[in-house]
Each structure stands twice: as C-alpha cells, then as structure tokens.
Design a protein that fits this description.
Length: 704
C-alpha cells in the first residue's frame, strides 16, 4: 500500500496538501463542516431520485424572448395519461397527434393535490413515474409516452399556496405564468371546468386556451371573469359554445374524439382472453360479458346456472333486453341521475312485465378511483370516505326481483367496459347535466341506442336513441347555477319504446347513421386540426391584447375607465358576478378615494410584483387620526377581530370560493387572514379612507 502511494504523483500531492505542516486546525474544521454540509445536501437531494441513482434531470432554461413563437405546447389536466379518466386519454392522444402531424413539442403539466411535491424539472414519463418517494402512479411498462415531456410545477410560493385548501387540485394563473417562463412554453391548453385555474394574476403571459365542459345554461358568478381571462375558449359541445358566446366572442366548438375501432378492438381483445377460460367455453359473448354471478357477489343465493341474458331458440340475438346504466358515482348531488335511472327501470318493469329485461348497474366507488392518486397505486387514503349515492340501496328500495338486476361495483379493464357497451341493448344515461357525455357517444359509436335527458350536451349528441324532456329545474346554490331533474315516467316510456323497436329496420338504419356521424364528426384528426387552428388564433389574439394587459401597463388605468376592483358597502355582498379582479368593501360612512386605491393596488401587484391574498386600507377617524387596526381585547364581540372602519380588498376569485361558507364579509376576511402567510396580507397606508361626519355621509351617498 505504501509503495502504491509513493508511485502515485497525485496521491503524494494529496498527502502533502493534508499534512499538518500545511493544513492548520481551523482549515481542517472548515473542511469537515463543508463535508457534513455536502453530505446533508446529498441526503436531501436523495429524496428525489428518478431511478434510485441519479437526481431529477432539470437545468433551468436560459431567459429568452419567445414572443410570437408557437412551438412548445403544454396540456394542463388532472392526473397523468396512464391514470383513470377520459380527460387523461383525450389529452394524451391530442398531444400525440399535435406532435406527430403538426410538429409541436408537446408537454404535460398535471394539476392536483400532490403535484406540488414534484420538484421542478422536465421529465420523461418513466422518470416522473419512478420518482422516489412516489408521487405519481407507476406508468405501465408498455405505455408509450415518447411524444410527451412532463413538467414539475414551480414551487408553490404564490397566493395559492396559502389558500390551497379551497381547492388544492386547481392550478393558478401565476403558476401557469411561472411555468411558461421556466420551461419556455409558448401556449397552454387547459381541459376542465372554468375554475380549475384560479385568477390570482391579471393576465396569462402566453396564449392559454380553456377547453370547457360547461354544466349550466348561463355563465354566472366569478366564472364570467375567469372565462374572460383566457386567451381563447373552446366548448366541448354546441350548447356550451353558444353559452360562452354570450360572454366572449372568440370561442370555438371542438368536441372530444370518439374512436369506435378502439372500443371494439379493446372489447374483442378482452373477450379473446375470457373465451379461453374453462367456465366460458360454452357461453356466448353476451353471457361472458354479463356474468351476473361473477360480477355481483351479493347474490350468492342465486343458482350457479343463473344468467342475466339468454339465447333465443333460433340462435339469434339474446332475448333479454339488457339495460346498461354505467358511469361515475362520486357526487352527492347525483349529477349522473342514478336515482332517476333506477326508478325509471322499475317503472318500466311495472308497466311492461311482458318484456324480458335485466338492469346492469355498473360503477365504482370514489375510493377506487383515488387509488390512482396514491403514489404506489395500491389503495386510497384510509380516511377517505366514499362519495356519491348508495346504488345497491337504491335498487333494493325499488323491490325489484333479484333476477332482473345486477349491481357491478368495480373498476374493470377498459376492454370489459367497452364490451358492455357493445353487447348491451340500450345505455341508460338520464343525467341532470353533461358537459360532454362520453358514455352517451361511445355507446352510439358501437351501434347501441341511448336514453338521455334533453338538456345541453345530451340533447346535442343523442342521434341513436331518445332524449327525454326534463321534469323541472334544480337550483344548485353551492355551484351558482341550475340543471334539470330528469323525468322518471318519460325515461320509463323511452325504455319501453326502444325495447319494442330496437330490432326494426327503421331503428337499425338510425343506428347505422349515428355510427357514421360519430365517425366523421368526432375523429381525432378533426379534433387535432381544430386545435392547430385555435392555437394560431390564440397567438394572434394574445399579441393584439398585449398593450391592454394590466400586467403590461406602466401606470394604473383610471378607475372611472377601467376599474380593477368592484365596490360594495354591503356586509353580505351579492354573489360574485363581476368582471373586476378585486372586490373592495367599505362601510357606508367611510369615504374612499378609489383612484388612489387603484393606483396603489396596481403598483403593488405589477411594478413591485407582490402577491396579495388580502389587503386592508388604514382608515382615519373624523379627526383625521389613523384608527387602530386590531380590536382591543375588552371590545372584542366574538366576531370582529379588526376594526370595521378599515376598508377590505379581496381577490374576486378567492372571495367567490369562500362566499358560500362565509357570506359575511368580515368572516370572509378573517378566514382568508387565518389561511394566509403574513407576507401576503398587505396594509395600505392612511390617506385613502376616512370616516365621515353625518353631513358628509348624506353628500357622499348622493355621489355614490
């Protein structure tokens, strides 16, 4: 060992450098400290390895001017392409088509509760899937994600980090803007409800397109301002596009794509495997797909020979009229209309006992879906309670004979779900509202008729089947809109009509025509071409809007010409339906200089780049002396922590989210203050607000 060290020049030099004659004790201590610090940093970084060996591959992009460029496109969606859900599948295939046919560089930016734990960076699908500790469900080994790069969101240090509990699954405008700068993204496509991106900045820095499944017949509340903030809007159905056009003119209609070949191929692939099983050798495909004893364990008392479907004597189609009610079940408001569907089937059975029939209820619990959000994909969080309605309880309440229904609660392979749609006689889907209605179109695409509610997207897209007029409206106060109540008797009548006529030549022609219509209207090529055109239009619109963006204005616009806050003196403000980005509350006996407030707010949030979750304007009393901000302990009344003379500024988007639970303005302010870091709460200096004497109050109220 000694000879090897002597023969190594580098080793001897190293030995000399660390000899006591050269290295003093303080230097040794310093080096030890640096070594410990280095090890601790490595241990911290080791929490985020992409393969167990190397760190997340991210190097910040050099700042560059990408104005006018349209090369890098990011899709914003809940979840990842390989997770459960139609949005994920739509985004994946759209991005693939834009990449391969239109030469865009395509990226995926997830929004969700756990996405902010992913370090900033640009990842391949395998890299982001293999993060340790896991934050992303494992990508299947045979999944093709070569057309996508995945973005880790910038650190959540904006307002949304402190009001995330309002909706932690949402992204924010500031995060989209940060990502555009950090990764050089030229445009975003955001799929989801209008409010999945919060309005915590004035403008989008790059073209941002909202692809919207709107659920109501009018755009109300803060949705108006949110919808206007996007560069371009795209409706998923003609009725949604029409509603959006009442709010903004630059809107297009582009639906999701529907591919019957994919559905039929998936169904056949699944059936091929099932046909080989020992117990299925003498069964028809329908008997394999709708095997009640296999998929509904509740009815052990039924004989092993029981079958939900039968084969007719002449070897033709099965005699049993198989009614498939399939869909999600995670909303307490029962938006999918499960209650009406089950009641309608019971009424249909009561009025037409002569028709052989079977109701197949297929859904899955919200906890099963949440397995996808667990990093390992094994189970939902143990504290998560199931959402939705009690489907088995609903069926049993109808006192139906147990041999005419099956309740199948499970997440099945896509092939089996497709096979159910192919081999059912009708798909029962009387929702209260649909933004698009994937099931409705997928069933028709494989020739299966549907029963729907005649409202919005369901009315738009029912060609093979019957769309039943609703019974009445239902107002959703918590959601700020209304949808419809499906008609039980009307749905039962529709089931009977299809049950009697489905094999006629007239109905078969209707089915064939619908298949051809879907093939042409909802092709992936058509959807991708639509977005290629909309992206170019959005870039043009964004370029034209640049001089008018608040974030680009060096000086605050006049409050009289372009107010950035809505004014109210009501302690119980009306539902937020204004376009202004902020809301200002002040007491009727307090005079406020709106122009001064606008200038201070604009300068604070643009020139200084401050993020604000809540702001107070220090008010002076009638003598001109600033009033104490906090209430003295002896004067505390159990409600008001702040003296009510001080005007309050709130972001409209935050107020709209909090308003349902905190309608009293001082409670709203207290809630936002309690959920905000101190750095995001601002105090405007005295000078813009003052309590008036009685004579001034009369004059001021007349001015207002």
């Amino acid at each position: 060992k000694k000879e090897r060290m002597q023969n190594s020049g580098s080793s001897s030099r190293l030995r000399r450098c660390f000899s006591p004659t050269v290295l003093t004790r303080p230097v040794v201590l310093l080096l030890l400290l640096l070594f410990v610090f280095f090890v601790s940093i490595q241990q911290t970084n080791a929490q985020w390895h992409t393969s167990g060996k190397k760190a997340a591959p991210f190097k910040a992009r050099k700042s560059e001017d990408r104005s006018g460029k349209l090369e890098n496109i990011a899709f914003v969606c809940a979840g990842f392409p390989w997770m459960y859900g139609p949005y994920q599948m739509q985004g994946d295939q759209l991005m693939k088509s834009l990449n391969e046919k239109y030469n865009f560089n395509t990226y995926w930016m997830m929004r969700g509760n756990n996405v902010h734990n992913i370090p900033p960076g640009v990842y391949t699908g395998r890299e982001i899937s293999n993060l340790t500790p896991p934050q992303v469900p494992k990508m299947p080994h045979d999944w093709d994600a070569s057309h996508l790069k995945f973005l880790g969101l910038p650190a959540r240090t904006k307002v949304t980090s402190v009001i995330a509990r309002v909706n932690g699954a949402a992204a924010s405008m500031s995060e989209v803007n940060d990502a555009s700068k950090l990764y050089g993204i030229d445009a975003f496509i955001v799929l989801g409800d209008i409010n999945v991106v919060y309005h915590d900045s004035y403008d989008f820095k790059v073209p941002t397109i909202a692809w919207v499944p709107f659920h109501y017949n009018t755009v109300r509340g803060s949705n108006k301002a949110l919808l206007k903030s996007y560069t371009y809007a795209v409706g998923l159905s003609p009725s949604t596009t029409k509603v959006i056009a009442d709010v903004r003119s630059d809107v297009a209609y582009i639906p999701h794509f529907i591919d019957a070949n994919v559905l039929e191929s998936a169904a056949e692939t699944w059936l091929k495997k099932e046909r080989r099983l020992k117990g299925n050798k003498n069964k028809s495909d329908r008997e394999i797909v709708f095997d009640a004893n296999k998929y509904d364990k509740m009815f052990k008392r039924r004989p092993s020979s029981f079958s939900a479907v039968e084969t007719s004597q002449d070897g033709d189609d099965d005699d049993v009229f198989l009614v498939l009610a399939s869909g999600t079940n995670y909303e307490g408001a029962d938006r999918k209309g499960w209650d009406v569907a089950i009641q309608a089937f019971a009424k249909f059975h009561e009025t037409h006992p002569e028709i052989k029939k079977h109701l197949w209820v297929h859904s899955f619990s919200s906890t099963q879906v949440m397995r996808d959000h667990d990093g390992n994909g094994n189970k939902a969080p143990p504290e998560l309670a199931p959402q939705g309605v009690d489907l088995r309880g609903l069926v049993q309440e109808m006192d139906l004979p147990p041999d005419i229904y099956t309740v199948d609660i499970d997440l099945h392979p896509r092939g089996r779900v497709a096979a159910m749609k192919v081999h059912a006689d009708v798909c029962l889907h009387p929702s209260k509202v649909e933004g698009f209605g994937m099931n409705v179109l997928e069933c028709q695409s494989v020739g299966t008729p549907v029963v729907t509610t005649k409202f919005r997207a369901m009315e738009d897209f029912t060609r093979n089947g019957i769309s039943v007029p609703p019974a009445q409206w239902e107002h959703l106060a918590a959601l700020g809109g209304k949808w419809v109540m499906p008609d039980v008797k009307g749905v039962a009548k529709a089931l009977a009509e299809i049950g009697k006529k489905r094999k006629t030549a007239e109905w078969k022609k209707k089915s064939k025509d619908a298949v051809e219509w879907i093939k042409e209207e909802f092709s992936l090529d058509r959807v991708a071409a639509g977005f290629d055109g909309v992206l170019k239009l959005a870039l043009e619109t964004h370029t034209n809007n640049l001089p008018f963006m608040l974030s680009k204005m060096k000086e605050a616009p006049s409050f009289a010409e372009r107010p950035i806050f809505h004014v109210t003196t009501d302690v119980h403000p009306k539902q937020a339906d204004w376009d202004e980005e902020w809301m200002l509350y002040h007491r009727p006996d307090v005079r406020v200089d709106y122009e001064m407030v606008q200038e201070m707010l604009h300068d604070l949030t643009t020139k200084e780049g401050e993020m604000v979750s809540l702001a107070f304007i220090v008010c002076k009393d009638v003598r001109g002396i600033p009033i104490e901000f906090q209430v003295e302990e002896r004067d505390y009344d159990g409600v008001h922590r702040f003296n009510t003379e001080h005007p309050i500024l709130l972001p409209t988007w935050a107020f709209a989210q909090a308003q349902q639970n905190f309608p009293y303005i001082h409670n709203t302010a207290w809630m936002l203050a309690g959920n905000s870091d101190q750095q995001f709460i601002k105090m405007f200096p005295p000078g813009a607000a003052q309590v008036m004497n009685p004579i001034e109050i009369k004059t001021y109220s007349d001015e207002l």
